[in-house]
Specification:
The complex is a heterodimer of chains A (about 375) and B (about 220). Chain A has 17 helices and no strands. Chain A is mostly helical and about 375 residues long. Chain A is globular and about 65 Å long. The chains are: A mainly alpha (about 375), B alpha+beta (about 220).
Chain lengths: ~375, ~220
């Protein structure tokens, strides 16, 4: 919950920077006679745990949703006996993987085999740093926010390739190569789509990007100004998460399970966790970049005015904060729902179709989109963030 | 110049078509989410096998005359008929009869051809065992009747699609009294008899029967 007072957004700030948990935590510890350095070190693990817990709860919910929605789309019932409506099923899955034997194949490279899943998971969790759930509700408002995410997500293919190669298995190697090719191809249109948004909001910071979208509620969301960018970003995000129709790296009909073939137990769980955290993260970022982040379809300020309460009053602050979290999560999970529905609608593309789509369709279109955005920004600076 | 424009137009049309098809597909999957599940939760709910279901074969030892017709009509000569000739009475004396259901293909030829009707097919299909040799049923095991799905109190019997009332596709919660769509064979027979009463029953031609069936 680190908060940096930003002069650019300070006058726009809906939620006043009144609560700084880090500052009060440090002051509390220093009152107890702890040195400032030690207080800072004691503070550090708390946001990390918060991210980890948020990410894992997000994954548990997503896994449950995936199973239930898949079942509904196929007119089945889905998990039912583990908890009410099978809500504990993902926990049971996780527990099973936790106590399973950890196998390293005899001919595999032990070090790389272990390092692979870690390299896949860590950047994804790290990217949660920049996801804002409210004006001050993010771990770190770094100035290069969205760029940090793009940089971190390009570490992932290294881990995938590493685990594919270290497994010493032809299916794993093919899966790893496919994953690397896919991630690298789709990163470019993804970055170009993000660039168009960044151009409009004049900032790489996720907080500024959301701020800039929330002047008139629903109508000022980026999706109206960047409809093509939104589609490109969503397609690329699906490809980056290796979800259908782009799940070639683990195409079970051809490659057993791709780079995951030789993995069992907790190492497999890391891959599993990584892919779902990545899905939730992508959905959150789509909602941040294009769907107004924490913004309610009608600006909260208008509500406050209508009720007659000043924006700085505690009640409005608390309501705005919780609505912000609720809206971010709701938008993200609507996108997760769309991803699951797409999974049962679309067939898997071939590798040549995948690369064709990435290089011959998405890349030129995202370039044109970028140029068009730049032109519109020069022509209509008011509407396109001059 | 125009060739280039045509290419661009075709490309755009393709992209729009693709998006259109994608939305059609999404609407189908979305529509399916609103439908009720068709799951039969197996150990607790079971479908009632149809009346001509070809399940495990039932055998009545006392009716059997050891003629071995069942062996001859069987595609793999499966039934083992163990008999000895009693020299004094000059009759076959049946000792044992067995069918290995691990090998049987449930074609029903033996049941069809048995001259004394000592073979029949049951509705039993739960034939999994830990050892395949325990599927080799002797005459005692063959003489057992399976528990009916409808009489087992721990199981909820569900009707198959063809046995549900008109317009119903969901077997859950349909009362057992509600009849299936169309007429039962007994009702059909009754109806045929009633309609043919004015005429001589022997004079009822094939033509009139076929006409009645069309109705």
């Amino acid at each position: 919950m680190k908060m940096l007072p930003n002069p650019f957004t300070a006058h726009l700030a809906l939620v006043s920077p009144g609560i700084d948990i880090e500052l009060s935590f440090n002051e509390f510890l220093q009152d107890l006679g702890v040195s400032p350095e030690l207080a800072h070190i004691l503070w550090l693990p708390l946001p990390m745990f918060l991210v980890l817990i948020a990410a894992i709860i997000g994954v548990l919910v997503t896994v449950w949703l995936e199973r239930k929605i898949s079942a509904a789309a196929q007119q089945r019932i889905g998990p039912e006996y583990a908890g009410a409506l099978g809500i504990l099923q993902p926990m049971a899955d996780g527990l099973k993987l936790l106590v399973k034997e950890d196998i390293i194949p005899a001919k595999a490279d032990g070090l790389l085999f272990t390092l692979g899943p870690v390299l896949v998971l860590v950047p994804v969790i790290l990217s949660w740093l920049i996801v804002p759930f409210g004006q001050n509700l993010l771990i770190s408002n770094v100035g290069i926010g969205i760029f940090l995410w793009i940089a971190l997500s390009s570490i992932q293919p290294i881990g995938l390739l590493m685990s594919g190669y270290a497994s010493n298995n032809k299916y794993s190697l093919l899966g790893g190569l496919r994953a690397a090719a896919q991630s690298i191809s789709y990163e470019i249109p993804l970055a170009l789509a993000v660039l168009a948004v960044v151009m409009m909001s004049n900032s790489l910071s996720t907080v500024d990007i959301v701020e800039q979208q929330n002047s008139a509620g629903l109508l000022s969301w980026n999706i109206w100004r960047q409809p093509i960018g939104f589609l490109i970003f969503w397609i690329c995000a699906l490809a980056e998460c290796e979800r259908l129709p782009f799940d070639l790296p683990e195409a079970e009909e051809e490659l057993v399970a791709g780079y995951q073939t030789e993995y069992a137990g907790m190492k497999f769980a890391l891959f599993y966790l990584g892919s779902y955290i990545n899905l939730v993260l992508s959905a959150l970022l789509v909602s941040v970049l294009y769907l107004g982040g924490w913004g309610f379809p009608i600006p909260i300020e208008w509500f406050a005015e209508w009720i007659g309460e000043p924006i700085s009053s505690p009640i409005v602050q608390v309501c705005a904060g919780s609505i912000g979290i609720g809206m971010t999560v709701l938008k993200a999970y609507l996108l997760v729902f769309l991803a699951i529905l797409l999974r049962w609608t679309t067939p898997r593309v071939r590798i040549d179709q995948l690369l064709d789509l990435g290089w011959k369709f998405l890349l030129p279109i995202s370039l044109v989109n970028l140029l068009f955005t730049a032109a519109l920004k020069l022509a209509f600076p008011i509407a396109f963030g001059g | 110049m125009f060739g280039f424009l045509k290419k661009v137009a075709d490309y755009t049309r393709d992209a729009v078509d693709a998006a259109n098809y994608l939305f059609q597909g999404l609407s189908v999957t979305f529509d399916h989410m609103g439908r009720r599940p068709v799951t039969v939760q197996y150990p607790y709910e079971k479908l009632i096998p149809s009346e001509r279901y070809r399940g495990r074969i039932h055998y009545e030892f006392d009716k059997c005359i050891a003629c071995e017709v069942c062996v001859r009509v069987c595609p793999i000569n499966l039934p083992v008929v163990d008999w000895v000739m009693n020299k004094e009475t000059k009759k076959k004396e049946l000792r044992n009869y067995s069918i290995d259901f691990g090998v049987c293909i449930f074609c029903g030829n033996c049941v069809e051809y048995c001259p004394t009707n000592c073979l029949s097919m049951t509705e039993e299909y739960e034939l999994s065992t830990f050892d395949r040799h325990s599927l080799n049923f002797d005459n005692v095991a063959l003489g057992r009747l399976p528990t009916s799905v409808t009489t087992d109190p721990s199981i909820e019997p569900l009707r198959e699609l063809g046995y549900l009332p008109q317009g119903v596709i969901e077997p859950h919660g349909i009362p057992a009294e509600e009849p299936r769509a169309g007429k039962l064979p007994s009702e059909m027979l009754e109806w045929l008899n009633q309609n043919s009463r004015p005429q001589e029953s022997s004079e009822r031609t094939n033509e009139s029967v076929s006409l009645e069936k069309k109705d």
